[in-house]
Design a protein that fits this description.
The chain has six helices and 27 strands. It is mainly beta. It has two domains: 177 residues, protein yfey like fold (Sandwich), CATH 2.60.460; 204 residues, no CATH class. The strands form four sheets. A nine-stranded mixed sheet has the order 10-11-12-13-7-6-5-4-27. Strands 17-18-19-20-26-25-24-23 form an eight-stranded antiparallel sheet, with no helix packed on it. It starts with a strand and ends with a strand. Pfam families: PHAF1 (PF03676). Belongs to the PHAF1 family. One of its GO terms (cellular component) is trans-Golgi network.
């Protein structure tokens, strides 16, 4: 049984780890992975058809805990303890919920102090006792309803009939319904760079690169840690040293040992094996990959990941908040021809294709990590447009955008492998696909 400390409006955890409001989904997953054998039977719940409208939930049924993430920002906005009997809870080191301590109204008031009168929900027969950033819910017998007119604080219960907490909610703000995830806490920065926004740089000849608005921890010499904002650019033709100087060391370097899209290359019939391998710089917290040419070691391809649940790469990257503007090819009833096509991580393919003229026949992309690892998420579809490749999920959302620059040293076709999916450790992939190894189940 987990023994956890409650910090209202902030966190739920112990000495070794804590779930902090505002932390990214991937950071919570990393905590769960570190507690294999202690936290078991984990479920990831999301909406496959409307991923931006329904919260992403990590459900811990054997521990009675539910982590609720905002579907757009993908940061933790609320923590629910839905079964108080499965976990020990304390506040300032003093237990208020355990097999020995029953979380009655008197115990809650003794532990947390006085607060406003409770609010009764007649439809659910629940009284809610609210503190700032923390709520407790008590089931109340319907026959006692008339005595609850002035709120929980005015109630008198028969001896031994004091209600017991059935659920607890931890959040930021005045109420659970209005809670929003706070900015990423400084304690979750972990000396990493994070992306605020990304702009695709284009001119008359095509894509030049991307401009990134970044943030990270400030100088360690400061008395108080603070957020520091940076602006950096990655331009096609930059050397790997240039990119590393601008963005720091990558999360991982991946060498392309195989290219399953090579058959679409004009030189696919050639059997001469290159002695060099193109390589990716993977920046997981920025949601981008940069591909370098093996011969010149210059950037020739950039991949922007949207990190939608239901995609094979989900949880490998943070969402890249990019903005891409293109000149339209078609006129629609509600948009004039001179109005640009604005594409972001939240755009849907049918809206984009209604104003552009991409390749009519997409390339079907089916990822698989190995012969023993099945892809439960199915195939995606890659549409080429000028020097851009849009990877589209079956639900019509964009999984990734690949920006490429034709290399004078290579005849690589536009649909050359733009994903570094196999570069990511099997532990993360198994988290969402292999229930036997990591106790994780995905539900749509």
């Amino acid at each position: 049984m987990l023994d956890l400390e409650v910090v209202p409006e902030r966190s739920l955890g112990c000495d070794n780890w804590e779930f902090i409001l505002g932390m990214h989904f991937s950071q919570a997953v990393a905590i769960i992975q570190s507690q294999v054998g202690i936290i078991k039977g984990v479920q990831v719940l999301y909406s496959d058809t409307t991923p931006l409208n329904v919260d992403i939930i990590i459900n811990l049924p054997q521990d009675g805990i539910r982590l609720i993430f905002d579907p757009v920002q993908q940061r933790l906005k609320a923590i629910e303890v839905f079964n108080m009997k499965l976990v020990k809870l304390k506040y300032y080191g003093l237990p208020f919920n355990s097999p020995e301590v029953v979380p009655s109204i008197e115990e809650i008031e003794h532990s947390f102090g006085a607060t406003h009168p409770g609010v009764y929900d007649a439809s659910k027969q629940l009284f809610a006792l609210h503190f700032r950033g923390l709520s407790f819910y008590f089931p109340v017998d319907s026959k006692l309803q008339p005595g609850y007119a002035h709120g929980l604080g005015s109630l008198h219960f028969p001896s031994g009939a004091s209600p017991i907490v059935s659920k607890m909610a931890l959040y930021c703000g005045g109420s659970v319904a209005e809670s929003r995830p706070p900015p990423l806490p400084l304690s979750c920065y972990n000396q990493q760079l994070y992306l605020e926004s990304a702009s695709v740089l284009r001119n008359s000849s095509g894509t030049r690169g991307i401009r990134l608005q970044l943030y990270t921890e400030g100088s360690p010499r400061a008395l108080e840690p603070r957020k520091q904002c940076l602006t950096r650019e990655v331009i096609f033709g930059d050397s790997c040293q240039d990119v590393a100087s601008n963005l720091g060391a990558p999360s991982r370097v991946f060498f392309k040992s195989e290219d399953k899209m090579k058959i679409h290359s004009p030189s696919a019939h050639r059997r001469v094996q290159s002695k060099r391998s193109d390589f990716f710089f993977n920046y997981f917290t920025l949601g981008i990959d940069v591909l370098f040419d093996a011969r010149t070691q210059r950037a020739k391809k950039i991949i922007l990941h949207t990190n939608y649940p239901g995609h094979y790469n989900f949880n490998m990257y943070h969402r890249c908040e990019f903005n891409l503007q293109l000149a339209p090819d078609k006129v629609t009833e509600d948009t004039p021809l001179d109005s640009p096509v604005n594409i972001s991580a939240y755009s849907k393919w049918d809206t984009i294709s209604s104003r552009l003229a991409p390749a009519e026949r997409p390339v079907v992309l089916h990822r698989a990590g190995s012969t023993n690892t099945a892809n439960v998420f199915g195939s995606t579809f890659c549409y080429g447009y000028q020097d851009i490749i849009f990877e589209v999920m079956p639900n019509n959302y964009i999984a990734s955008v690949t920006l490429y620059h034709p290399s004078p040293y290579s005849n690589e076709y536009a649909f050359g492998s733009g994903s570094s999916a196999s570069s990511v450790s099997n532990s993360t992939r198994n988290l969402l696909q292999d229930g036997n190894k990591s106790n994780i189940r995905v539900s749509a």
